[in-house]
Amino acid sequence: MSHLVTIQTQVRDVMALTQACAQRQLPVPEFRTVRLFQTEATGYAVALPDWRYPVVCDVTTGRLHYDHFEGRWGDIAHLHGLLQQYAVQKTRLEALRSGRQVLEHSLPDGSIRLQIAVG
């Protein structure tokens, strides 16, 4: 029996974020204060390909801070890919902590299907 789950992602787990960056071949996130055009943000900064400013992940609130100037300073698809991989890694970590086995399947449309063995 299978079930579909929709996940609204909040970035709160540094280990899952680090693993997601590794999977996407991005630098390790660094905790720091970053200038974002006219403001500053503090958290785990992730440098996305061809983005003028990094994405800053506040793991306390789960919120992301970034400025891509409506796509002119960075392709939002890179952020979506990071969030997708974060959700996969967070799900994997939680399943493994519960003693469950996880199988990952990449689908032709770019989505990822995870199968978690229960019992």
Fold and architecture overview:
Helices cover 27% and strands 27% of the residues. The chain is an alpha+beta fold and 119 residues long. The protein has one domain (14-116). The strands form two sheets. Strands 1-2-3-4 form a four-stranded antiparallel β-sheet, with no helix packed on it. The chain has a two-stranded antiparallel sheet with strand order 5-6. Helix 1 (14-23) packs across helix 2. The mean pLDDT is 91.
Entry summary:
The chain is α+β, with helices and mostly antiparallel strands and 119 residues long.
The fraction of residues in strands falls at 25-35%
The run of helices and strands is HEEEEHEE
Low-confidence stretches: none
Mean pLDDT: 91
Number of contiguous helices = 2
Rg calculated over all Cα atoms = 15 Å
Shape: globular
List how many beta strands DSSP finds.
6
From the N-terminal CA to the C-terminal CA, the straight-line distance is 12 Å
Helix content: 25-40%
